[in-house]
Specification:
By secondary structure, this protein is of the alpha+beta class. It folds into 2 domains: 97 residues, NE0471 N-terminal domain-like (2-Layer Sandwich), CATH 3.30.2020; 277 residues, 4-Layer Sandwich (Double-stranded beta-helix), CATH 3.60.130.10. The chain is 30% helix and 27% strand. The chain has 12 helices and 22 strands. The strands form 7 sheets. A 6-stranded mixed β-sheet has the order 9-10-20-13-22-11. It has a 4-stranded antiparallel β-sheet with strand order 12-21-14-19. The longest helix is centred in the last third of the chain and has 20 residues. The chain is elongated, with a radius of gyration of 26 Å. The two termini are 18 Å apart. The N terminus is likely disordered. The site of one zinc ion has 4 residues, from loops.
């Protein structure tokens, strides 16, 4: 999509060249360089930023895309002496007071435009596609399904699947083979599987001496996996090898970001508490009889935001919420009241569906609250899922390399 827009941009630029509306460069208040085009285009850059990002071979190492100047101090006193726009080469030329010269391509500068719109475009198109929040009634519209085989074989389908995970927060793959390696293959198709205290792949089934609530036939209430990790698993890949013939074993799911947003709009005082009061999330035990012992502990609120004020992570897992609540006494009652409202919204907005053998249910574990209804195994029918995790760093990286196979800079 972007590359197409990029091409159109280049075509337009070529047209501009033909009917050359000229550009002039000037220095403003000793601190900015401004480019003005006769047709109204205006670009303004801080001098300190220009100096810091000089692209000459002395300042910038092209092969590693690395700045090789200002390693110890920033160019605080950089001041432009003269600036000039070279129409023929479409470049801004800056002569600095220390006599250094810098040259910047117009296209490079445009991609780094400081305007609100250009910055937002970069965040939406390159950083992360914006999440589409959904309520229970919109579940049908936001459900994306892909053939397992296509995800494995076609890059375009792999990209569409990862985009769905980023935007809608979940997707269903159909037609996976009856193979315990499916979850691992999918994780490795994206990049790297995440290793946790539960191993690389893990089997979700009813186990004797179960060390985790998920390994029982009991209902699994709405939760996110691993709130007790600082580096919480990004997505959860759950491959159904055997589904239960009993009425249970269905999955439930709620868009946690939708609920957080609703809480913010409708109950701001509850939202404030759930996004600020730290909760202790813990996991003590060992994975299976021979597993290494673990004692995980992470303090974080239920609703976490990122540096841009967007929802970053929802933490909720009743089984993994520590009875040690390390907050002042007078916070406790109010927090429970807010939490109760949050849970009410979570259950009001929950959808339910039952996967079949060969389905792979994949979802954003930072965003989707999910659960499972109780089931009954029989000697002939034992519910069996294989799970794997992948971190979002790996997923976004894959998504970007698929979208921009030949990044110039
Ligand atoms: C889990 C989980 C869902 C299921 O193991 O954390 O959410 O369908 N399992 O068993
Ligand atoms: N399993 C499925 O956070 C959790 O303990 C949820 C994780 C055991 C890896 C279950
Ligand atoms: Zn330089
Ligand atoms: Zn889970």
């Amino acid at each position: 999509m972007l590359s197409c827009r990029h091409m159109i941009g280049q075509l337009l630029n070529r047209q501009y060249q033909r009917h050359a509306s000229s550009i002039t460069a000037k220095i403003l208040e000793h601190r900015y360089v401004e480019l003005t085009q006769t047709d109204g285009l205006q670009l303004k850059y801080p001098s300190i930023w220009l100096r810091d990002n000089c692209q000459c071979p002395e300042c910038f190492h092209g092969a590693t895309r690395a700045r090789q100047s200002y390693w110890e101090r920033s160019p605080l006193d950089a001041e432009a002496n003269r600036v000039n726009y070279d129409e023929k080469r479409q470049q801004l030329v800056v002569n600095w007071q220390d006599d250094h010269n810098s040259v910047y391509d117009l296209e490079w500068l445009k991609q780094r435009d400081f305007s609100v719109e250009a910055r937002q475009r970069y965040l939406d198109e390159v950083y992360k596609p914006p999440a589409q929040l959904w309520s229970k009634s919109q579940f049908g519209d936001v459900t994306r399904e892909f053939a397992y085989k296509d995800v494995i074989e076609k890059d375009a389908v792999l990209g569409a699947w990862l985009e769905a995970l980023a935007v809608q927060g979940f997707a269903l793959l159909r037609g996976a083979p009856d193979d315990v390696q499916v979850a691992r293959h999918l994780a490795e198709r994206i990049g790297y599987i995440k290793l946790t205290t539960y191993g690389d792949v893990f089997e979700v089934k009813s186990k004797p001496n179960a060390g985790n609530y998920a390994y029982l036939m009991k209902p699994l209430p709405m939760h996110t996996d691993m709130p007790y990790y600082e580096y919480k698993a990004g997505i959860n890949i759950l491959h159904t090898l055997v589904q239960s013939d009993s009425p249970g074993g269905a999955n439930t799911m709620t868009d946690g970001f939708f609920v957080a947003d609703k809480l913010r709009r409708e109950h701001p005082e509850y939202y404030e508490l759930l996004s600020s009061v730290p909760v202790n999330w813990f996991d003590i035990g060992h994975d299976g009889d021979a597993g290494k012992p673990f004692h995980n502990l992470w303090r974080a609120p239920v609703i976490c935001l990122d540096v841009d004020g967007q929802f970053a992570r929802i933490n909720h897992n009743t089984m993994k919420r520590d009875s040690r609540f390390t907050v002042p006494l007078d916070k406790v009652g109010a927090w429970y009241e807010a939490y109760d409202k949050f849970l009410q919204l979570v259950y009001d907005e929950a959808v339910q569906f039952k996967t079949r053998q060969g389905d792979v249910f994949v979802f954003n574990n930072l965003r989707m609250l999910h659960g499972r209804t109780a089931y009954e195994d029989s000697p002939k029918n034992q519910r069996h899922l294989v799970g794997a995790y992948v971190d979002w760093d790996i997923i976004y990286s894959k998504l970007r390399t698929l979208k921009f196979p030949n990044p110039k800079d």
